[in-house]
Fold this sequence. Notes:
Layout: E1 2-7, E2 12-18, H1 25-35, E3 39-45, H2 46-60, E4 65-71, H3 80-93, E5 99-105, H4 107-119, E6 126-130, H5 135-138, E7 143-148, E8 151-158, E9 163-167, H6 176-192, H7 196-205, H8 214-234, H9 249-259, H10 266-285, H11 291-300, H12 313-321, E10 331-338, E11 341-347, H13 349-359
Parallel strand pairs: 2-9, 3-4, 3-5, 5-6, 6-9
Antiparallel strand pairs: 1-2, 7-8, 10-11
Helix pairs in contact: 3-4, 6-7, 6-8, 6-10, 9-10, 9-12, 10-11, 12-13
Cofactor: Co(2+); Zn(2+); NAD(+)
Enzyme class: lyase
Binding site for Zn(2+): 185, 249, 266
Amino acid sequence: xxxxxxxxxxxRYPIHIGSNLLQSNQVWDGLVKQLSPxxxxxxxxxxxxxRYLDRLQSQLEQYAQTDYMVVEAGEASKSFVTYERLxxxxxxxxxxxxxxxxxxxxxxxxxxxxFTAATYLRGxxxxxxxTTLLAxxxxxxxxxxxNHSEGKNMIGAFYQPxxxxxxxxxLKTLPExxxxxxxxxxxxxxxxxxxxxxxxxxxxxxxxxGDINAESIENILYTSIDVKRQIVERDEKEKGERAFLxxxxxxxxxxxxxxxxxxxxxxxxxxxxMMVALKVSEHYYEVDLASNSWCEDMKSxxxxxxxxxxxxxxxxxERMKRDKKSLxxxxxxxxxxxxxxxxxxxxxxxxxxxxxxxxLEEV
Length: 363
């Protein structure tokens, strides 16, 4: 097991990365001693519950009463309706401020459970247990929230977890496309800070998940999470450099909203967004970042790199204007003057729309 500590003036918590951690007495004994829970409330989804809910529940019941609620798998569950259902269940069960909420699942469950924890009784502790590669990014840093019809993650809060437990054995059951999708966020960390990650990821993505040993997965996760840890420690509330973690997300989120949440995975949308951002960067800074070569590399790894033909460039622009990084409807994007050196800049909507049109798939 490898452990990273995330700490600043206002928070401190561990990220445990290793095998078979769901039932690790070493991990849970320490957390129970720290949190003294009166009860546990596991929030998970229909896919994850089949594989891991019983295992985790039996472990937690050694320490305190454990309840759970299962939501439908998929982005559509990040909604007001599901959020209200969780709060209603918690209130009816009489959970108190010593109840610890457990987010067992991917990014959707983590965001939803985290927002529930942030707002229930004005805040109760929660623990992130990501079960997808994609969630290695969203589980760290305290961003929680739900979607609105006008945009992704528009309703939420910054609320740090008490711990993150990353049991890499859960990744072995991921479908190949989910494994590849999750690698998009690892690749993002390579583009914005640690360019060595890009080469190791290219080797790893091309290998079936079942053929990768746990140690290799742990090392990639450790290196990738460490990039985010450093940034979050310096900028918890996204007042400055934390915005760099949104590289590829301005276009990616717009694509997700345009297609309808759940029609494309977050990682797939972010990959397209990153390829667009590379091309925008080249035009904006008048530099050569080898964007065409990177597009070919990503295509060879199984990623789509073109904006789906069903998207409308003008509609994407309007959605980008409502992005959380935007100010007074000005589009702001994370661009790269060189690999590993991100900047947040204001870009002209006409300039962006022309590039979006070029990047649309041909019908």
